[in-house]
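Notes from hallway chat w/ T.B., transcribed later so I don't forget. T.B. wanted the structure written out for a chain they're using in a teaching module, and asked if we could keep both sequence and C-alpha cells in one place. Agreed to drop them here.
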Amino acid sequence: MTSNTDVACANRVAKAILLIRILVGWVFLSEGIQKFLFPEALGVGRFMKIGIPLPQLMAPFVGVTEIICGVLLLVGLFTRLACVPLLIDICVALYSTKVVTFTKNGFWGTLDDADTDVSMLLGLIFLLLVGGGTLALDARYPEGLDPK
C-alpha cells in the first residue's frame, strides 16, 4: 500500500524530471534554430574557425540534430535515445571550443565560458540515466519504446 508521502514524492520527482527536460530541450532547440537564423555567427563560419571538416555540411547537420532531439526532449519521446546524439554534439563543442579558451584565458576564464555547455552535458547525462519520467510521452507507450 502506498502512502500519501510516496505519492507526493513521486509527483515532485516527475515535475523535477520535466523541468530538466524542458531546460535541456529548450536550449538545444534554440541553439539549432540559431544555426539557421544566424549562419555567419553560429553556423558554417564558426565550424570553419574551430577546424571542423566539411563545415558546409556539418553546420546544418548539427542544427537539424539539435532541433529534432531538442523537440524530442521537450515532449519526452525517445528521451534516452535523443540524448545520445546531443551528448556527442556537446562533447565535440566542449572539446573544440573550450580547449582553445583554456589556452587563452586560463582555468577561470574557461569555467566562465563553459557554464552552459557543462550544464547541458550534466542535464543530458541525468536524462540518459533516469529517462523522461512519468510526465513524458515515453511513459504512455509500451516499455519497448524507451531503451533502458
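Follow-up for T.B.: Helices lie at 4-37, 39-42, 44-49, 55-75, 79-130. Might be a good example for the class.
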